[in-house]
Amino acid sequence: MTAFPKKVRIVEMGVRDGLQNEKAVSSKDKITLINALSDAGLKDIEAGAFVSPKWVPQMADSADVIKALDLPHVNLSALTPNLKGAQAALDAGVKEFAIFTAASESFCQKNINCSIDESIERFSEVMAFAKANNIRVRGYVSCIAGCPYEGDIAPQKVLEVTQKLLALGCYEVSLGDTVGVGTANKITEVLSLLLQHIDKTKLAVHFHDTYGQALTNIYAALSLGIATVDAAVAGLGGCPYAKGASGNVATEDVVYLLNGLGITHGIDLQRLSNAGWQITQALGKAPVSKVAIALHNTQK
C-alpha cells in the first residue's frame, strides 16, 4: 500500500504565476481573487512579484494589491529576485519571500540573465535581509524534468541546485517542471535521488500541464511522501521564457485528486471553483480546469 501523506499543503500560484502573462487584469480583479481564494480555505498564496515593471508590467501593482488585503491568517508570499525587491515586499507586508533559479544553465541565462551559480550568489543579499527581518524564504528550481533549450536535465543537477538553495537558507524548495515535459517515471527518478539526501518536508512540487501529465506526476510525488503542491486556480499561467508551456496544474483538479485519495487539505472545492470562474470571466476566457468545468456543467 502506498504511503501517501495524511495532509497536503497547497501553495496557490494563480495570482502571480497565473496572471503574469495576462494583459488585461486589474488590481481590483487580483484583490477580489485573493480574497476569494482565502475564503475557499487557501492559507498560502503567492500574491505578487517585486520585479522590474519593464520586464513584468503585470506585477507592477503588487505592493498596492498586497497593502489592500486584510488576511492575517494567510501566508502571502512574493517573488523577490534582489534586495530592492525584498525591501519593497517587506514594506508592503509580505510574510514570505521567494527566490528562483533553474537546473538548466541555458534557461537560467534566458530567464534571469546569469549562470546558476551567479543566481545563487545574487540571492545572498536577499537571504541576509530576510534573516535580519525574520522572513522565511522559499526557493524555486525550474526545469527539473527538461528544458526548452537543453532537453533532458540530469537528476544530479537538480539535486545540486536544490542543495545550494537549502544551504543558502531556504526553508523549502519547490521543484518545477516548467515546460511540463515530465512523466511519472522521470519525476520518480528525480525525487527518489533528492530524497536520499534531503528530507521530504523541505521539498515541494510545481508542475505545468503542457502534456497533460501534471496530475499523474503529482500522484507520483505524493506516493513518495511529498506533502506540498503548487497549483494555480483555473489552470492559469504559463512561462514567458518557455515556448509552448501551458499553465500550472489547476488547483481545482489537485483538490479533487486529494479528495479521492482521502488526503486532508482544508479547501472548499466549490468556493475554489467559483473563484476560478470569477477571475477567468474577468479575463474573457474559461477555466482550463476540467473539474471546474465539470462542476459548472452539473449546476446548469
UniProtKB/TrEMBL annotation:
User: What Enzyme Commission number(s) appear in the record?
Assistant: 4.1.3.4
Pathway, according to UniProt? Metabolic intermediate metabolism; (S)-3-hydroxy-3-methylglutaryl-CoA degradation; acetoacetate from (S)-3-hydroxy-3-methylglutaryl-CoA: step 1/1
The Pyruvate carboxyltransferase domain covers 8-273
One Pfam short name: HMGL-like
Q: Name one GO biological process term.
A: ketone body biosynthetic process
The regions listed as transmembrane in this protein's record are none
Q: Which UniProt keywords apply?
A: Lyase, Metal-binding
Q: Name one GO molecular function term.
A: metal ion binding
* Family that this chain belongs to: Belongs to the HMG-CoA lyase family.
Name by which UniProt lists this protein: hydroxymethylglutaryl-CoA lyase
Q: Which organism is it from?
A: Pseudoalteromonas carrageenovora IAM 12662
Gene from which this protein is expressed: liuE
